[in-house]
What does this fold into?
Amino acid sequence: MKGTAARMGVMKRVSLVFKAKANKALDKMEDPRETLDYSYQRQLELLTKVRRGVADVATSRKRVELQMNQLQQQANKLQDQARKALSMGREDLAREALTRKASAQTQLDELQVQYAQLQAEEEKLTVASQRLQAKVDAFRTRKETIKATYTAAEAQTRINEAFTGISEEMGDVGMAIQRAEDKTAQMQARAGAIDELMASGALDDAVGGKRDDIQSELDMMSANSDVERELAMLKGELTAGAPKQLEGSAPNGASQGTQGTQGTQAYQAPQQNQQNQQNQQQQQAEGPYAPQYTPPQQAEPVQPPQQGQQGQQTQPAGAPGLADEPQDGDRS
Amino acid sequence: MIVRILGEGQFRVDDAATAQLNDLDANLETAVNRKDEAAFTAALTRLLAGVRANGAPLPPDTLEPSDLILPGEDSTMDDVRKMLTDEGLIPG
It folds into this structure.
């Protein structure tokens, strides 16, 4: 080998660091055979630690997996919202949804990279754990042989070799555990940050059930359009009903539209009361929902103001749509 | 000669390959001295590939100490510097 004190390669220097470490530990022992037992205990501890390390990395990986699923759902949901918003002619809302989707996607991409890293760490640590187990088993056998066969003085060389070999492995595995712990800690910090981000609504958290302003606006628009549709329907019914009212209410015969109709209602009130009583009896006999089944003919001249005031006096006259008109109650 | 790649295991490398590996190792050291991360990664990758190509993995139950130890594939220059200067990096 060309490696000298003048130019010592990286591999040589790293191995010297490892050897120095092992020698230092060996020097501490008065009876070399004690070293064997002591080292063996350390090996068992390390084995436990590396197995726990594997479990920790796996837990962390699963958490990342869960978050990736959540983010994916989130991205899908935002995509749907964008589509819906656009179909309602709300490009601004669609743009906002897509912007958030891009943000969720960025997080997702980063998590995917880290997920792969964690998976690689988990595999490495699993292999390291198996290798260490094999070496620890070999060491135990060697330890018993050395203790049974050699005196303390004779055993020195063999112990040194076994000890150096195993401590090199332990150093290697120890570093692997350290690295896995670092990665797991980083990952947990990141996962915590993403949880916070999702909770804050910046990614528009549909998953956590927190505020979702895009959804609520879409819902509102949807609800508004339902209201508008019903309103239009009611207006249609009212307009259709107006000519019939003219027959029964001469004084306001000329009135048209909503205003006219309401004016008519006031005048008709006395007549209605009579009818109301009849109807109420009928209603009692037939049950609370009976008025809804009342034939339309009866409904024509009767007006809803009283319905607004006295809910129980539901009239057969009140076509379901009219009864719902809020103005009726106010005006009467 | 036995070479350990950290995080990967030990290899028995034919002595005939030593000169080649030493050259690769020299490149690695030059990169470290120049603090050239890209050159370091490239040199490390070549060195590890050289060990794997010229070596046979040792069975896991051997207790032989390695003659040479190499940083693992994904090590950074910083990792190696710490390994060489800070004893705390190697537990035990």
About this structure: The interface with chain A takes residues 3-4, 6-7, 9, 18-19, 21-22, 25-26, 28-29, 32, 47, 59-71, 80, 83-84, 87, 89-92 of chain B (CB under 8 Å). Chain B has three helices and four strands.
